[in-house]
What we know:
Low-confidence stretches of chain B: 255-262, 434-442
Mean pLDDT of chain B: 80
Structural class of chain A: mainly alpha
Order of helices and strands of chain B: HHHHHHHHHHHEEHHHEEE
Oligomer: heterodimer
Amino acid sequence: MSDDDILGRLRQVRPAGPPPGLRARVLGAADRRRTWPWALAAAAVLAVAMSLQAAAGRIYQRTGELVVPATGSVSELDALAAALGGEQALLERAEQWTAEQQRLTARPADRERQ
Amino acid sequence: MTSTQGTRVRPAIRRLAIVAFVVMLPVAAWAAWDYVEARRLGRVVAAIQARREPVTIPVPPHLPGSRSAAARYYDAAAALVDTEGLYESTGLLRRLDFPDERTAAAVPADVRAWLDRNAEAEQLLNRASGFDETPPLADFTRKADGMLRLASLADMRALERLHAGDAEGAAQAVLRGLRIARILQQPLNDLGVRTSYSVIGRALGAIHGIAGAGAAPATVSALRGALSFADRDDLLAQIVLADRAFVLGQYWEPRNEWFAERDAPVVMGRRISPLQLLLMRPYMTRQVLEQLNLLERVLHDVKRPWPQRLVVEYPEVAEEPARTNSRWYFLMLRYSPWATVNAQRARTRVVGRLLAAVRSTDAALAVEQYRAAHAGSVPATLDDLVPGQLKAVPVDPFSGRPLLFKALPDGYAVYSVGSNGVDEDARDAGTQFRRRWGANQHDEDPADIGVKVRLQRAGQ
């Protein structure tokens, strides 16, 4: 039996190779199985984080409404006029000084606005 | 062709999904932490409010100047005060607090010269003091300094009048000083109390001189009325309540509101990005909660009877954060319970002293009223003043028992046993009032705290 005969017989029993598209088909199927749970988990965690953050923000805001003092709104000039009762010159001097003091102690940005 | 591309793209998507998941896990953990701390804080604030305890310090409306004419006079007078020669290391206040033989002789002339320079400011101060209403001190931190300058003006005038033998004039100046102290105490927190009692401490020194100089009964009565606001039995508890409200108010300060402020907020002079604040929020909330818990325990302690309320058991808290120039450090320091514990420790010691001093002074004024009604004779005990001049003998904060009284060869002493709890025959009484209460908190405690009144005999 020559070598050619042996090779011929071996060719007859050698298993046929997988079809060319098999690898891509198998791996593709595997990819489809493994990607979506990760994506879903990431999305779920993101959603949970965002809702917790929003809920915390609401709590902070609600609590802050209890804490932050409300400032009154009175008519400064009316109250001042009522409290004046004369001594206008001295009061004008007082106003002049307070205005100057405020200007000097104001933050630079506020000073520019003035 | 398509399937080959799919084999390359899908693993990349899968890897991306895994990375996203892994990255999102700590983010979700941070959000959960933030939520848990927010809920805890929300519950604590709701519980405080349910007990009708303050969750905020009412802030007077910040108006240009103020809506009160009296406040404008105060502002103007404060702006006019020339402090040169007052605060320096060899200034008047220093020489008055720590007199030495070398410089003491020149003090009266220096005081007069300083008052002459500030005549216009004093005129405005007198106008401000003439109004019935006590104006709110809008923007306390900015204006407190000016009010302290005015208090010095009143203090100097009281000294000058006492030196001139004019007890009535001195009393009027003291009344102006006490009015300033009352304004400063409107925010009943650490800062308000310290500044206020630094003024009261000086006024007490002048009152002792007035008491010995035989002031008119109406003047003594006016001084007792003006001093009454300073004797608050629940002072420590009120300060702790105000401090707790301040901790909360500071946390929600508009400049810190990560949900409202678009510009980078400034914390202790450092510009902090909103993202930094947001990331730090659960940590800072935890710090605030720790402070609130700490203050709750202190509040429980300071509601006990005298003198136990002066012995506060401070829980262990973390040490001061390591100092760095990092912005994170300034965020951490601001809300650190470490600072709160330090403030509370200093305060209980000072509050005990100042209440003892105020009560002793009031009792001494009551003795003066008694003397006026009994031809100048000194009572045998403080019980003799009840109910005519006192409803009850004031309680000594350091002993929980009535204040002590001792007749002296040239006058009398009303005093507390002081922090050591031992009656040392009024030793040190009347020696510590010239110093500022806020400044001498680390000084050695005086033996006894109170008043020694030396009576001026006829012809003196």
